[in-house]
Amino acid sequence: MATPITSPTSTESKLTTETFRKCWTASTADNNLTLHGFRRFKTTHLINLRLLESEIAEMDHAIYQAGISLGISPSPTDRLGLRHSKKDANVPNIEDTITPEFTATLRDLLKQYDTPVLTESCYADDALQAFNNIMAMETFALIDDEKQASARDDLNLHEVYKTRLLRVDLGTRARTDPFQRWLHRYLRAFRYWSLSQRSENNTEGLGSLLGSHCRWSYQDTILIAEVVGRVTTALLTAVFLVIPLAILSHQPSKNVQLVVVSVWFLVLSFLVALFLKVSSFEMMAVAAAYAAVLSVFVSNVPGNG
């Protein structure tokens, strides 16, 4: 007997239509924040990882207890520290613990936890690697995009400020300078403060506060922080080249010249290490290049002993 096909109810159809309407609006937006902004579900990912970790930890304990119960002497180096491992009072029989079902469950959990698995068409990263990829992506605050924020009736202004969305059209934050991240954070905080001031006399809800459908406000804090960071770095570079050279050109004493070069060299090295994301080798290269420029200028300036 054939199973009757049930048609969706009117409520389900309305919910599906409304969901599609929101997805269509976001997927055809003219602004990059709305078009490429996706939720990252950070807490949910972490809960999933912790649950997997807990299940694997129980199986890991069972494996170690089964191994210790075999009575095999540890290797001479004993890198795992098996000689100091604590044995449970009642260890189940190894035939009852290490079973084909146990092995299959362990493999499945490990695959979900941290192992890339080969699917029919591509490699798919699972829990740990997926979370690492997500957390490395550029983010912006939901408060930067009034259009998406106004659609979230379940969030208040502070929650909108704290919610982070991913920019899937940009690269990772692996090379983002700390200075740019600070700018990014302060720009978000300023926007939140500005909207908080507006909300004091607003009684119509978050949607009314963030504007109407005819005029939406956007703040691309990633782009602003990047531009301001580059301009500031260029200006500081000019300052650290022009000012010490101007001082050295009017200073005949070699001792004073040495002090000037040392001070500016130390200050530049400290600022580069603090505000820019550079490796140890890049830090050495920057410091050496700057010291070379100043030392060449000093060597060409006649001075008194």
UniProtKB/TrEMBL annotation:
Mention any Pfam family matching this sequence: DUF6594
Show the InterPro entries listed in the entry.
DUF6594
**Protein name listed in UniProt:** DUF6594 domain-containing protein
User: Start and end of every DUF6594 domain?
Assistant: 32-294
Q: Does the keyword Amino-acid biosynthesis apply?
A: no
Q: Where is the signal peptide?
A: none
Positions of transmembrane segments: 227-250, 256-276, 283-301
Q: Which residues form a coiled coil?
A: none
Q: What are the entry keywords?
A: Membrane, Transmembrane, Transmembrane helix
Q: Which species does the entry assign this protein to?
A: Paraconiothyrium brasiliense
Question: Taxonomically, which superkingdom?
Answer: Eukaryota
